[in-house]
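Per reviewer request, we include the raw input and output of the structure prediction for the construct analysed in the revised manuscript.
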Amino acid sequence: MIHKYVNSFDYTYISDDKPFELHQMGNYISVFQDEMYDFSEYQIAILGVKESRNADHGNITCDLAPEEVRKFLYRLNVARLFPKIIDLGNIIEGETPQDTMEHVETVLRYLHNQGLTVVIIGGSQDITVPQIKAMDEVSRFINLCIVDERIDIDGRSQEVLSSNYLKEVVMQKTPQVFNLHLFGYQTYYTYENQLEQLEKMNFNYLRLGQLRYEIPKYEYIFRDCHVASIDIASVKQSDAPGRSMQSPNGFFSDELCQIARYCGLSTRLQSIGFYEFNPNFDLRNQTAQLYAQAIWYFLEGFSLRYDFSPNSEAMKAQCKNYIVAPEGFEEQPFHFWKYEDLNQWWFEAKTNKLSHYFACSYDDYINCSQGLITDYIFKILKRI
């Protein structure tokens, strides 16, 4: 079924027509064959999407990225516990960008039903839309994390572009975006009404300055994430020159790798997209190498996944329960759960006597215990 929607990539170009060393990813990744229908032995699928016709900001040639990233990914060394990986090749370009998006959605839905987590190498960031749509058979409510310098939610165009695709995302009914995290936006690229729109929907947004040197503090955001979408523009120009709109500020390259690793650790995450890299603007393949290394860190995180949530009595028995009652909540105090082995915190919220558990931080507990309900906890309560 999948072979109708994917093309093989130029393996000779990726390998320089030479065999890969035993310890290199190129010798470890399986390449999709037309007659393959059983993916049960694999855990990760790599999918290239060479679609950029809806790319904004002059980034049309970001469709060249998949092969350039593969070229460096395949040369990285395999870690001992890496998952089994299959590279499906590239999505066949449709007559229109919408046709391509439908191809992506179909393939992702099939792979999710097969139990595979998908690494997408784009292409423009509007490919995030089929990432969300393909989740309709996995969960009714989706947590989405966007790593970007800008909030791509408005614009006058009625077309879905890389600069406004979030409008389409938040309007989805099946599946519905329950929570959206904007990670690393920069205020001078942000309109006040964009933040107001997010606030009305009780979504979360974190400025670049809040996150500098603090990314481990926010690992809980990725722990609840089903879908992740990364724009290379979130990284500063000196670390990632392969972008159409140059800017001196952004994440450092190692911070992007931290983010990718936390995404890999999330047992909920079904797909991650690496978007907007434009090889025509790259210098000495620096950005291609960065995305390849970020994917490597995602795979390392995936190999270390540990599925835990205090949603059963057996799992609760492994946690410490902390009960706090901020002013106004004395009759229905907050329950926080800490899993000591991983130093992870969870917040329990109840609706109609049903408990829901949300990953949170130690700071959320400390603030609530002092009578200060954090913005994150407050928005959870409003959303449910």
